[in-house]
């Protein structure tokens, strides 16, 4: 990425912008290669979700991720560059796309500020291939035309503009200038839509017998086919009025401040939304962090019951085994890349609004030559959503679940040009289109699991999304 020492905020005039774009176009003309011009500015405090909702266009792809308790949120929409990938090499191809895109980027402004410079947003499905009629490809990757993000007290807006060798510069300069004006003095006054109609009627159907699948999986575990498998349910909801995915997200981030609230939209009417407690991988300044999360119990009613529930989870042999399988896999796969992992010897409790999980945070310095996507490619899918051994378990998931997972239990996140980025696991999630939603929830099955208990656990996991889709009046 070429960074020009120009401060767009200090030279903000239509003439200066046109002169700058003209300089970028000359670079594009010199080698016949389109440039991506990325203009970052620091702006006054904005809520990226409010911005996304205010200028939401159902026909444009978007990406949103927020971790309220870490005070970080990033929104981006419309497409400046995009690609899709499938197959076993999909993460390597994604890396090439990101490298190639950043290499032809000319950036100005505070690119080293939090969320400064161009970002590639990614939605990777659970499986490396998907059926043709599925709403999201195996990997959808795009650089947005605009991005607004907040990290602590710093809000950064980024406009990304493709400049082709033969682009009409006047039209381009005018459009970018308008966008710049909009974000530099962004106002939500008058942007609020009238209060949304909330669904009243809600019918749900489930088309396969989860308990029977768990029982079948337990027989396969008994036969030694695999040690652990994660089986999910899909609940199909139909409401009387269309859902508003971003307003649902607002409810999720309020209720689950320790989770990642996320939304990814394909621009054809489908949104995949959720509140995930699980960070698959984050890389910042050469340090990698990941969450090992597996083993679940409900929250208690009152402090005593809650503590008793937590203690029961910590003492549960079945849950400890479920967790240990995930930690062992994460360790083995990252150590094979040369990472020396640090993590607590015993899992702790991660308490969410509705559930508590066994949790082991893992961190390591990335060795030279190993990048975020190298780690992601070996980690995904972890046995928190797939199983162990991976190949046998994942193959059995396809036979035992009666629906395609799509982005459920996939990897959703973003990457910047500095090698940093963050991906979460697409659980506690729903695929939403108009009046329909498909809500997903899974549970890890090991020897000692019972169909009834796993069914009850997935019911608890469903509830978060169901409540957010149909808030109480
Ligand atoms: C697969 C899901 O959760 C995983 C993450 C944490 C705890 C899990 C469990 O205890 O089964 C699951 O492995 C899901 O919520 O759909």
TrEMBL record:
- Which positions carry the signal peptide feature in this UniProt record? none
Q: Specify the Chorismate-utilising enzyme C-terminal domain's residue ranges.
A: 209-461
Which reaction equation describes what this protein catalyses? chorismate = isochorismate
Its EC number(s): 5.4.4.2
Q: Which GO terms describe its molecular function?
A: isochorismate synthase activity
Gene3D superfamilies reported in the protein's UniProt record? Anthranilate synthase
Which EC class is this protein assigned?
isomerase
Among NCBIfam families, the record links this protein to: isochor_syn
The protein's name in its UniProt record: isochorismate synthase
Lineage summary: Bacteria, Pseudomonadati, Verrucomicrobiota, Opitutia, Opitutales
